[in-house]
Amino acid sequence: MGEAHNSTATKSHIVSSELEPLILVDSDDLEVGFLDKAACHDGDGLLHRAFSVFIVNTKGELLIHQRAANKRLWPNYWSNSCCSHPRRGESMQEAVARRLEEELGLSTELKYLYKFEYQADYHDVGSEHELCWVYAGRTQAQPMINTTEIRDWRWVDRATLSAELAQHSERFTPWFHMEFGRIERDFPHALEPKQ
Known about the structure:
The protein is an alpha+beta fold. It has helices spanning about 35-40, 90-105, 160-165, 175-185; strands at about 10, 20-25, 30-35, 50-55, 60-65, 80, 80-85, 110-120, 125-140, 145, 150-155.
């Protein structure tokens, strides 16, 4: 794995809870109810709304992060820039902007790319079953990571990242594999340093 860059700019505050209600949806992304985060991730997981964000810098490098060790699912795994869930009564645009600031201290214009449904098991601990909206954006800023959510982070160029995903797939979250592959294939412009 390439060199990680521990940020000198950090913050530490709790921004999520196993008790917060997530938005349950059907495969058409229509709301069907609400359930706490912990229950949504039990067993095979219940389908809920989520999002993933990909941020690139002016060199075209992607910001990836290592999930905190205290995460229930995929702790210490590397993943895309930011990923989470909208809250009850919150629009996706509000949720994505909120979480980007909470986790990374960043604010930037984000472009919606696509959404997809997936299910992935993490040993016998639980599962993700998400209808995930995928966004991309650009920044010239350096992140200020929230250490309750993120263990480490780094900027990485696409060629290096593709090689690492192939050679060390076990170090990355399953949704990151799916999303990065789809963006490379169908939305490569989203990972360019300029529009």
